[in-house]
Amino acid sequence: MALKIPGLKLMLMLASVAASANASDADIDQFYCHSRAADSQCERYAVSIINLITTPERFHGKKISVTGYILIADETIALQLSKDSSPAESVWLSIQEGQMETENDFRRYKKKEKQLKSAFNRKRLLIEGIFDMHTRAHLYRGSVNDITRIDYR
Predict the structure, then answer these.
(1) What single DSSP character describes residue 139?
(2) Of 72, 78, 71, 73, nearest to 143 (Cα)?
């Protein structure tokens, strides 16, 4: 019979996050770098939503790959930790290409949003893009911009 300890998984997850918060940039490079360029510089970091919301400064401005559940609803496009996560457990996904200056820009955005919603809403996905810790759209904990990949996980 297995021994179940309430909250053990959460305690282990928080201990891991605390350890990464104290890690140096070299440690972050070693543990999270997913692919390297010919000059050995990290090209992309494989991270979790937990990493992004607890230590956003580590990944700000870096190309990341992150997995979560996409939510597309009225004025919301987010990647969530779980299907029922709050904005505090999510990051905003920016699908905007350029400025929203004209009616055509808005229509193009709404068309792209509709396509994403019909294909991916409430699905577990891998997203690749650039993380920005300063974006606080709708109380979300940063954003993934310049998205280059959306794939099922």
Answers:
(1) G
(2) 78
pTM: 0.74
Helices (H) and strands (E) in the chain, counts: 5, 7
Confidence of residue 25 (pLDDT cuts 50, 70, 90): low
* Cα separation of the two ends of the chain: 32
Distance CA 82, CA 117 (A): 17
| DSSP assignment of 64-132 | EEEEEEEEEETTEEEEESSTT--GGGEEEE----S---SHHHHHHHHHHHHHHHHHHTT-EEEEEEEEE
Asked if 127 and 66 touch (Cβ cutoff 8 Å), the reply is yes
